[in-house]
Amino acid sequence: MPPHSLPLLPDIVLPQASDPTLIGRIWSPEHGGPAVVTVRDGEVFDITSREIPTVRDLIESRIPVDRIRSLPGRRIGPLAAILQNSDEGRRAPDAPWLLAPIDLQAVKASGVTFVVSLLERVIEEQARGAPDRAAAIRADIDRVIGRDLSALRPGSPEAMEVKAALVARGVWSQYLEVGIGPDAEIFTKGQPMSAVGVGAHVGIHPVSTWNNPEPEIAILVASDGRIVGATLANDVNLRDVEGRSALLLGRAKDNNASCALGPFLRLFDESFTLDDVRQAELSLLIEGADGFRLEGASSMKRISRDPEALVAATIGKNHQYPDGFVLLLGTMFAPVQDRDRPGEGFTHRTEDVVTIATPSLGTLINRVMPCADCVPWTFGTSALMRNLAQRGLL
Fold this sequence. Notes:
This protein has helices at about 10-15, 55-60, 65-70, 80-85, 115-125, 135-145, 155-170, 175-180, 240-245, 250-255, 275-280, 305-315, 380-390; strands at about 20-30, 35-40, 45, 75-80, 95-100, 105-110, 185-190, 200-205, 210, 215-220, 225-235, 235-240, 260-265, 280-285, 295-300, 325-330, 355-360, 360-370. The mean pLDDT is about 90. With about 400 residues, it is α+β, with helices and mostly antiparallel strands. The strands form three sheets. Strands 1, 2, 3, 4, 5, 6, 7, 10, 11, 13 and 16 form an eleven-stranded mixed sheet that branches. The chain has a five-stranded mixed sheet with strand order 8-18-17-14-15, with no helix packed on it.
């Protein structure tokens, strides 16, 4: 029996804006591959062409936003129908559905960019992946640190004084190093083409018993370092795996369907800029099939490293991305509400529905499943190139 349908309705999913410039991707059964699309008056238009065979080419071409709006495209159908078919648990394979709104871009992420999540990473490390130890360690960390780290600018002399004091007290951590030290944590969340879109299942590796969603904004960056737009992200995290060792970050972060992006990429224009990203307030809702409900939030106003600084730490003379990249900016959400036994905090269960939203970018909705029960990732870069060539787009 398929699970109950997700609330994938245009009024819920789309940004609360009069005329946002939206770019996305759909799976086109007609072509056996993806298409670059935009949304106009509730209709989805395919704007794929030899000039724009991929989202990567659209971004790298420097086509002005006003020209993107005027591209004729080809009408695919109403957004409402495509959204409904984007629910992986109820999908009709002969109709289009939404994909993650990026393609050839690298999927990068920045960690420990908010003080609340910084302290939770320290707790994970101290707990060595054992959730039942978290509550006692949390109280001890609060007692030892004894000050609001949010006032510190990472890498500043004041931050280095705090570091010296914590080292002297024997509580320095690799997470504190990247949280208040001079260098940001930038890691690879997933491979190009591996992210899933709105309505898709998001995957939890079966080895994990302590995990959570991470509601984030992701910014799209061109190969020359321009920040051109933003979307929503769920940086699914296995707390017990990373807590055992930070060297297990790849196992904790990069699994089948472990990164969701969408619903659309909103390009910067006269009504939406990076300053809107800096001011964004994200909401999170987790609803379990068992009746469990958890609400959370993440405020970009409280980020400790500016998005431009995080981009500068990712790309430059020493590191290039010829196809650009999407960069997840981190989250302040750190769930401590108990779900099962007291003191163990939150962890996912199969069929949890995760809703991440902010008015300027819309709503990203996904259902949690074991990684092996999510659609396997089989359509990679080589498959895309062959598909585009067969369609005469290369």
